[in-house]
Design a protein that fits this description.
six-stranded mixed beta sheet, Immunoglobulin-like, 2 domains, 7 helices, single chain, alpha+beta, 410 residues, Purple Acid Phosphatase, chain A, domain 2
Amino acid sequence: MNLSRRSLLKQAGLLASATALPIGSLLAATDEPLPETLLPYLQNPGPDAMTVCFLAQKATGVKVAWVKDGQTKLTEVEAVGQAIPGTPWTIWKARLKGLLPGTSYRYQVRASPGDAKEKLPTYDFRTLDPRASELKVAIFNDIHNQLPTFEAALATVKPEDFEFSIFNGDMINDPSASDGAAVVFRLWNEYVRILDGSRKPIVFVRGNHEVRGSFCKTLGYLFDLPNLDPTAAEADHQWQYAFTAGPVHFVIMDTGEDDSPTTDPTSYKRPRFWEAYRRKQTAWLEKHLASPVVKNARHRVFVSHIPLHNPAGWYSIVSRDEWSRKVADAGFELMLAGHDHSWKFVPDRKEFTIGKGPETDTPTLPVLIGGGPSMKEGTLILLTADSKGLRTKMFASDGGKLLHQEQYKA
């Protein structure tokens, strides 16, 4: 099975090589250098805080001015800059604190590139509200840099159809440090532009292709995740986190590589490292599942790039054995995943044969697996929650056909 899938990926141009990574037509068609500043984007959303991130090559003295919508008195916060190793870029982060839940704010990044003070456009955002009765979220996965597939998926929905987005893995294919990681920065800026990420947070989940490539250990600098220190040793990186938006509590777990207990220990997939890495998250998960925020949530959704259950066989065995039962016992209703490249809905409590057998599995929860990266396989998932319950709709990138819809038991 591994050789077959690897062969398909190679034919599609999705395996890293010694030369440039294949990317979507928009990126491949331009030789123009990146601008010295990229679009600001929102990270780590909360009911009382939001992080504004700003990537710049030469800017100094970066600040973010913000104000509650309808008011005029600005608050100015100094952003903290951190040079990104091996690149000409610095990531500036300003954590806006003391905000009110479910409230609209406006902000503006103010930077000094050289001697001139630069004021960028003003953007607005809305804080999360754990007390809100409704929620709308868009989920993408396995785009592998293919911007045409991504843009086609978005053509299915209107801006008001989602409050924020979740990138559930392999959105950045084998990130390369070549040319200062120019492909990574150009791609990310396009994602922000297309999704309006300056106004709507992008919730990032790491996939197995994002733990590959010469820039993979530096990728964490681009994000603001509650437990992640990108300067720490790789084994101490913590990409797992949780948050509540409206009536839904999300738990994000990092499945790492797509190794298995039978993977050669000398493989580039480093199975022993990733087995230990996943088990290390279990202590965090157990503590979190016992917290009041989980117990009091109306709906609970588990998110990971690699499925914990999958009839096709592309699933994380250690993750399943470590986490699946714990999550089910905590009252979660749904698992969201990707990785397979072919969309699937896997119902709970129904035994299936894995691949051609003889192994079988019985999911503890329903699993909805998004597809990609080709136009034919790409998908967009819309998750909504309100007084009627928790629901998902999956649309095809190619033409926007409704592929699947489901309502989940509370």
